[in-house]
TrEMBL record:
Residues 160-354, 629-782 form the Periplasmic copper-binding protein NosD beta helix domain. It comes from Methanococcus maripaludis. Pfam families: NosD. Signal peptide: none annotated. It comes from the Archaea. Transmembrane segments: none annotated. SMART domains: PbH1. This is Periplasmic copper-binding protein NosD beta helix domain-containing protein.
Length: 996
């Protein structure tokens, strides 16, 4: 209780009475019974103090001393408009100034030296307390109604400021020079790291919320008072403080009335009469405190509902006179026993526990501790909390005990383990229960790692690990869990890796989801589903991988059926849509803009809908379908066809292996009558029925140049409604049986150009020319009299094509005139010397992973590893070895790690190998591992990518010499799975053998 005194000035006082108080008249004058102005005219010493028994009184001490030894220096009860100023008061028995129910009081510029509880004590309204110097506390009986009418400014306690706050939000951190702190009707204040040792109730908190008292030393030299007084407040935290008293007081160090949701934790109390006095406290937690040598009541009072006391140490004194407190944790908590961390329901440590028949499990006694008939601790601790051996590994172990009971979580259900505190949690057991719908693990705290430790955890509920979807958590790790159930996480800046589950769903930003395996032998649709932004999804295996978000990287995953992405600015690379799946048609589906889809392998289709996307360097065992504007489709290997719909599409440098019908069809928007304006450039069609198909679906105003097309019927179809196209420098090779692919010669001449719109410089037979150029037609039979590579007569390309489907659209009678046909095939910048590429036909049989994969690899795991990796070499010898894995390989000397990679060859010749050689368990040199010996090693390597760290799998196949590298590579192809550690191999006359 703190004192506030008030003096008030009233503008209309009765006529002033000048009255001087001195030693000669003190015995009668000290009782002031009439309004007026009173003055001390000399220093006065007496047993008795001055009594003000009238309203409207001002007492001006004029700097004189008032030394009182028997009672208060100045006191008044139930009067108004009292002012006391400029008095130097010494009171040895009671308060210097004592006001009771005095309204409109002013106490100003006084020096009050007392050894009692309060220098200034009062109650009433409208106190003004300004520039007083006190030797002990400022206190009184008051609450919200009184304190919010006070003005308290410039006062000190033994030279240190008294801080007073009222009606203020976000008061912030209290200054470190505080002597006494009074807070009324305020929010969000922090009292931290202070030493409060004055003769006062050093902290008063009334009608306030979110006030923290943390890590303070609180030891006021006080008698008959409390250290901290808390009344009618909520959501406050008193934690980590050390309490002691230099006087033998019967008062508790914390007194609380009518407060809610209060945390009192990890405080230390030693050698005092009482601990806490708690009345009408609700929904609060008292935990982690140490009560030692408390020779009165450790906790007294009568709380209301929802108050729990747990993980406290009651040492040498545990008298409790309190009702309704529950002496165990409301849910599982972290505690330590015998240098091991555990997570479970916990009680308190009682130094006088003496149940001789009790056994212990995870640091909990089997027999409850009964303090009284009404106070019972069902989970007493074997060791003191917080001092009994912190675990060296800082792990929190989940054992079978955690799965014997359930706890509620805030989402409304129940779970065996509800994680509400940060920490590193490790599963130490298998738990399988298919008869319950309770979740196994629910995470409701930031900064949590849950390590399944390769144990099995199963439940018939929807999720085995779950986070409350109502709250976005931060910094969560879930790893190494084995389950046939599902995992669900709503969090950001988190990592879900190396789990084996049925389904996995993660929602949030800046997450890493890697190396998870989703599988189920009875349920087909098992998936990884992710939503958010700036995520990394890599090296996962599932039936489906589904992503909804933007600015993320999705690479090196294996999906048995579908990789689905909805969003913008994503990088989708090096994924394999498993052709060994029994589901038939497999997809990569992309919906969005500015996505990069590269280096993937898919058994059936890449399907795209969006704008400004790039589809490049993919291997597709059927076709690519893309709708939208400004898309780029380049450098892909496609088994059947490429179909687009939109404007300004670039289709370049692709290879179509064996189109079952048409190979390339660049449509516009037919329903709207909008032409394509596409560019079809430098593509190779190795086999088709119809090559480039301009079939009256608004393919107009497109540029089609430098393509090489082999076709059984027509290398190019030009519909009679197509106009504005430039078609030149293409090689059109007819492979069918007809003698003339020109067909009929219709009367209407086309509206497209079959020659270049400008002169082109080129070479032919060693000479350089510059001319308008047309196309190469394999059935052109004209002559070249001037020897410049251009036919002397025009090539008339007529078409009488009638389609078997939608005949009304595809019945085409059309004539185009190539006035500068090429005598030989176009090859870069010259006519002639063209060599068609040869690419292994992948078909759609489902017997391999990517079209360029070596047939010498048998294991599905090794196929997946090679399909999902870039293969790099250093010199020609190592290049030859690398080509034994796949046809698409690259020089590693300037290679930057940006995806899963296989290194072929050692650091002497391979710059990339030299850069990362030290990352592996065995470093390769010309001397080690030795003649004809090589090593196979697998390592996850982290690289910085902007503000993120990416992890890629790197396989290192190298030897001390060429035979060592050959031995390692040939043996690698025979493996069933990737080795867990370095595998040394030697080349012998019988081939590669493992070196034991």
């Amino acid at each position: 209780m703190i004192v506030l005194s008030c003096i008030g000035f009233v503008s209309a006082l009765p006529a002033s009475i000048d009255y001087n108080i001195n030693n000669s008249n003190y015995d009668t004058a000290r009782n002031i019974t009439s309004p007026g102005m009173y003055y001390l005219t000399e220093n006065i010493s007496s047993t008795n103090g001055i009594i003000i028994s009238s309203d409207n009184v001002t007492l001006d001490g004029q700097g004189y001393f008032l030394n009182i030894t028997g009672n208060c220096g100045i006191n008044s009860t139930e009067h108004n408009n009292i002012t006391v100023k400029n008095v130097k008061i010494t009171a040895t028995s009671y308060s210097g100034i004592y006001f009771k129910n005095v309204n409109s009081a002013t106490v100003e510029n006084n020096t009050i030296n007392t050894t009692y509880l309060c220098s200034l004590w009062g109650s009433g309204y409208n106190f003004t307390v300004v520039n007083n110097s006190l030797a002990s506390g400022f206190g009184g009986n008051y609450g919200l109604e009184q304190l919010t009418t006070y003005k308290v400014v410039g006062n000190t306690l033994n030279g240190k400021p008294i801080y007073f706050y009222k009606n203020e939000e976000n008061i912030g951190e209290i200054p470190s020079d505080a002597s006494q702190i009074i807070i009324s009707n305020c929010t969000n204040g922090q009292i931290k790291n202070l030493t409060l040792d004055e003769n006062a109730v050093v902290i008063y908190i009334g009608d306030s919320s979110e006030i923290t008292v943390e890590n303070c030393i609180i030891k006021p030299n006080i008698y008959h008072e409390w250290d901290i007084y808390l009344i009618n407040s909520e959501n406050c935290n008193i934690s980590g403080n050390t309490f002691s008293t230099s006087e033998n007081t019967e008062f508790a160090v914390i007194k609380s009335y009518y407060s809610n949701n209060i945390i009192i934790s990890e405080n230390t109390l030693n050698g005092m009469q009482k601990g806490f006095s708690l009345y009408a406290l609700t929904n609060s937690r008292i935990f982690g405190n140490t009560f030692e040598n408390i020779y009165g009541n450790t906790i007294e009072g009568s709380v209301s509902t929802g108050v729990y006391a747990y993980l406290n140490n009651f040492i040498n004194g545990s008298t409790l006179t309190v009702g309704n407190i529950i002496f165990n944790s409301p849910a599982d908590v972290i505690y330590h026993y015998n240098v091991t961390g555990y997570f479970g329901t916990a009680g308190n440590y009682w130094s006088d526990y003496n149940e001789s028949g009790a056994t212990t499990t995870n640091g909990i006694y089997s027999i409850p501790y009964a303090a009284t008939e009404s106070i019972n601790d069902s989970y007493p601790l074997v060791e003191t909390f917080g001092t009994a051996g912190e675990p060296d590994d800082e792990l929190i172990h989940l054992t079978e005990e955690n799965f014997k009971r359930v706890s509620p979580y805030t989402g409304g259900g129940s779970a065996y383990v509800v994680i509400t505190e940060p920490g590193y949690y490790v599963l130490d057991c298998d738990y399988v229960n298919t008869s319950t719908s309770n979740y196994s693990i629910v995470i409701e705290s930031d900064n949590v790692t849950f390590d399944g430790n390769d144990h099995w955890l199963n439940t018939s509920g929807n999720y085995v690990v779950y986070s409350n979807a109502r709250a976005m958590l931060e910094n969560i790790t879930i790893k190494n869990l084995m389950t046939s159930s599902s995992i669900y996480l709503t969090a950001s800046n988190s990592d879900v890796s190396s789990n084996n589950a049925q389904n996995l769903e993660v929602n949030g930003n800046y997450n890493t989801i890697s190396s998870n395996v989703m599988e189920n032998t009875t349920y087909i649709n098992y998936y990884v589903r992710v939503g958010g932004a700036y995520d990394t999804i890599s090296n996962n295996t599932a039936y489906k991988i589904l992503y909804h978000g933007y600015d993320s990287k999705i690479y090196s995953n294996i999906a048995e059926y579908d990789l689905f992405v909805y969003g913008d600015n994503n990088n989708i690379s090096s994924n394999v849509i498993d052709p060994e799946s029994t589901q038939g048609y497999n997809y990569i589906e992309i919906y969005g803009d500015n996505n990069a889809i590269s280096s993937n392998g898919v058994d059936y289709i890449i399907y795209l809908k969006g704008n400004y996307n790039t589809i490049s360097s993919n291997t597709v065992d059927d076709h690519i379908s893309a709708t939208g504007d400004y898309n780029t489709i380049s450098s892909n290997t496609v088994q059947d066809n490429i179909w687009t719909s939109g404007q300004y599409t670039l289709i370049s440098s692709n290879t179509v292996i064996n189109a079952s019908y048409y190979a390339i069809d660049p449509n516009g928007y037919y329903d709207e009558g909008i032409d394509a304006y596409a560019t079809v450039f430098n593509n190779t069609v190795l086999a088709s029925k119809l090559g480039i198909w301009l079939d009256n679906f608004c393919e107009g105003y497109s540029n089609i140049t430098q393509n090489t097309v082999y076709a059984d019927d027509y290398p190019i179809i030009i519909g009679d409604n197509i106009t504005g196209c430039n078609i030149y420098l293409n090689n059109f090779i007819y492979t069918g049986n007809s003698s003339n692919i020109s067909g009929i010669m219709p009367n209407n001449t086309g509206n497209n150009s079959l020659v270049s719109p400008f002169e082109i410089e080129y070479k032919y037979n060693g000479n350089t020319y510059s001319n308008i150029l047309g196309n190469y037609w394999s059935d052109y039979s004209g002559t070249d009299a001037d020897g410049n590579g251009i036919g002397d007569t025009s090539y008339f390309y007529g078409c009488d094509y009638e389609g078997t489907y939608y005949e009304e659209y595809y019945d085409i009678d059309y004539l185009e005139n190539d006035t500068a046909p090429l005598i030989d095939m176009w090859n870069g910048n010259e006519i002639g010397n063209y060599v068609a590429p040869t690419i292994s036909s992948s078909g759609s049989s489902g017997t391999h992973y990517s079209s360029d994969l070596s047939y010498g690899i048998g294991s599905g795991a090794i196929k997946r590893a090679v399909s999902a990796s870039n293969v790099v070499y250093g010199n020609e010898i190592d290049q030859g070895f690398a080509l034994n894995l796949r046809e698409n390989v690259q020089n590693g000397n300037n290679y930057q790690l940006s995806g899963n990679t296989i290194i072929v060859g050692g650091p002497e010749a391979n710059g990339f190998a030299n850069k990362y050689d030290s990352e592996f368990g065995i470093s390769i040199t010309n001397e080690y591992p030795g003649e004809n010996k090589g090593v196979i090693q697998v390592q996850d390597i982290e690289v910085k990518d902007g503000n993120f760290v990416r992890t890629y799998q790197v396989i290192y196949i190298a030897g001390s010499d060429r035979f060592g590298t050959q031995a390692a590579l040939e043996y690698f192809k025979t493996l069933e799975d990737l080795p867990e550690g370095p595998l040394m191999v030697e080349w012998t006359e019988n081939g590669p053998v493992v070196v034991e």
